[in-house]
Amino acid sequence: MFGLRDLHVYYRKYAITEIRMIFYATQLFCQSYLKNRISIERFVERVRKRRV
Q1: Of the candidates 30, 29, 8, the residue with the CA atom closest to the CA atom of residue 19
Q2: What is the pLDDT of residues 3-48, one digit of tens each?
Q3: How many Å is the Cα radius of gyration of the chain?
Q4: What is the separation of C-alpha 7 from the centre of its chain, rounded to a whole number of angstroms?
Q5: pLDDT reading at 52 higher than 70
Q6: 49 membership: H or E segment, kind and range
């Protein structure tokens, strides 16, 4: 879902930083969806459709 198989970094510390940024952005999107009363399941479906 988060596209980690496409993560191209050579050092672990950079990978951890990248993963943290991805999770932070995801949290912001989830909060926005909750605030606008849109279900998280619908959000996840939309994200998965874009990754395929």
Answers
A1: 8
A2: 556 666 777 777 788 888 888 988 888 888 888 888 878 777 877 8
A3: 13
A4: 13
A5: no
A6: helix 40-51
For 39, the token pair is: 């279900």
Cβ count near 15 (within 10 Å): 14
Tokens of 14: 């950079």
Token pair of 24 as six digits:
């932070």
Tokens of 3: 């596209």
Structure tokens belonging to residue 49 = 């459709």
- Cα–Cα distance for residue pair 8/39, rounded to 1 Å: 31
Q: Cα torsion for 40, 36, 29, 2, to the nearest 10°?
A: 20
